[in-house]
Structure formats: structure tokens, C-alpha cells
Amino acid sequence: MTKIGLDELDTIITKELEEYANNTTDTMREVVEEVTDDAVETLKMTSPKRRGKYAKGWKSKATTDTNTALTKTIHNRTPGLTHLLEDGHAKQNGGRVEGKKHIAPVEKQAIQSFEEKLGKKL
Predict the structure, then answer these.
(1) CA-to-CA distance for 51 and 108, rounded, in angstroms?
(2) What average pLDDT does the segment 82-97 reach?
């Protein structure tokens, strides 16, 4: 066991806390990247396909990227279509087209996966 003086204690504690924060931040970034990539791939597979253009259009981008935070947003290249396909819409000559829930299940899965992976790695 190493003995340290009181004057060195604050520098050692500060150093250890900084190291812990850096390791935690790196782990969080890795998990966010993994979960986002998995969610995009799942959306590409489970999205409704008529011609395939909508399903191939899923992308992710970092909306917040600082030293301590990383927020990624998943979006489609045709943004108005996501709402129409997910929730349904009215037909031009009357009636209604039922929605196909394909985004909500992937969102729930991504949240659960994020919590599990983060719990394992931390």
C-alpha cells in the first residue's frame, strides 16, 4: 500500500476521476455507434418495400457531438413519407390506408439494446 500526503490527495483524486470520465465517455460513444448502426440496418430490412427506395434511404447523423455527449438521429431521405407509412393516411377519393408500424418496434429495440450493452460494458 502506498502512503500519500494530504497535499497530494486532491491531485490523485482529480486524476482518477478524469480517467474514469474519459473511459465512461468512450464506452458510451462506442455503444451509441453500435446501437445506431444496428437500428439503421434493421430499419432497412423491415421497412415497407414497393420499389425499395424508401427502405434504402435510412441514414444516421450526429446531431450533438461534444467531448461529453454524442446524440445521433436516424432519419430517412424522404421525411414526409415516414409519417404516412407509419401512421396511415387518407386516400384521395375517400377511405383510409392503414399504417405499417415499422419504426416504433425498432425504436423500442434500440432503447433496450442500448441499456443492455451499456450495462455490460460499464
Answers:
(1) 27
(2) 94
